[in-house]
Amino acid sequence: MRRARPLFLLAIAGIAGYIAYRYRLSQIQIDREKPIPPVALPLGVQANAKAGWDWEKSTESGPKVQVHARGFRQVAEPSRFELEGVELKIFRKDGKTFDKIVSDKAVFDMGDAYLYSEGEADMARSPRPIVLSTSSPQASGSTANPAKRKPNAK
Q1: Tally of CB atoms within 10 A around 111
Q2: Quick check: is 153 in a domain?
Q3: Are residues 24 and 88 in the same domain?
Q4: Could you give the CA distance from residue 47 to residue 37 in angstroms, rounded to a whole number?
Q5: 70: CATH
Q6: Which tens digit of pLDDT belongs to each residue from 10-43?
Q7: Comparing C-alpha atoms, which of 114, 112, 62, 49 is closest to residue 88?
Q8: Are 136 and 107 in contact (CB under 8 A)?
Q9: Using CA atoms, how far apart are residues 58 and 54, in angstroms rounded to an integer?
Q10: Considering only CA atoms, which of 75, 69, 148, 63 is closest in space to residue 114?
Q11: Which of 17, 55, 58, 76 has a beta carbon 3.0–4.6 Å from 63's, enabling a disulfide?
Q12: pLDDT tens-digit map of 86-144
């Protein structure tokens, strides 16, 4: 039995070494598969995405206004969204036909439900599309009609 003691110690050391080796290999594999952390947002920006963004205002009779954008950036103060690739639909009283306004960029104020575009926008009226082009269109979600003023600077 005394002669077996060194063999037991050697076996224990071998098993411990094998376990340490396998543990280290698993840690290296985990480090390789770790996802890349996202880029930090600029100061004052709460969200930024190139994915779609949607907002809708409706009543019991159906939708009044729908806004869709390809991408957006949410600013903290004042609470607003800077939208890219904007498509605005202002529905008529029947809730099925709508006027469509398309713009490259727009700003949407969530608190006031107010949309403003400083650039050009294309407007199409339905059911017979008449394409109009205008500069600096505005729309208010509370009336679902084009507004005639710029939003107040906050």
Answers
A1: 9
A2: no
A3: no
A4: 15
A5: 2.60.450.10
A6: 999 999 999 999 999 999 999 999 988 888 888 8
A7: 114
A8: no
A9: 13
A10: 148
A11: 58
A12: 998 888 887 788 888 898 988 888 777 788 887 788 877 766 544 445 555 555 555 44
